[in-house]
Fold:
Amino acid sequence: MGKTISSTAQFTLHYYKPGLSKRTREIHGKRPRPAPSLTMQPASAKWYDRRDYVFIEFCVEDSKEVKIDFEKSKLTFSCLGGSDSLKHQNEVELYQSIDPNASKQKRTDRSVLCCLRKEEPGRSWPRLTKEKAKLNWLSVDFNNWKDWEDDSEEDMSNFDRFSEMMNNMGGDEDVELPEVDGADDSSPDSDDEKMPDLE
Structure:
């Protein structure tokens, strides 16, 4: 009398041929496992430098459960983003120290903006990170980058006014972000100052 052999058994027996190593039979005799899904990834971000603040914008739409830890030499960001609630987490060892108590954050439907108050105002940051490391999720915000060290006295008053508005900025979505000096559409030189010379 004969017995019916299942397709799974036939598949396994097929690879138990003379000449095949045990390792080869193990590889081909087992069904491949699905690759594990990624449950966490860093959020893409862009940053730029100002006289008193360093700005970093995490580009996450429809963010939820946003948590930001401002430390003296470190910034930690995490949230759930998008319709699939993908978890994001970023940790940045900062180039210089900041004042955690004076640093702010602002969430919108498109991103989360962090304003880091420099511990040493007036000192430029050539990069955001402590080490010269290339982070694939971080880029320079050239639209808002400005060589503020060459600003005139008039620009200095704009920075002072901007700092006052930053102190009044909270996490409420109804609060409008303050205008950054040099990025005001009414300024005649705004278009010339947005993009730095790349050469």
Q: What stands out?
A: The two ends are 84 Å apart (CA to CA). The first helix runs from residue 7 to 14.
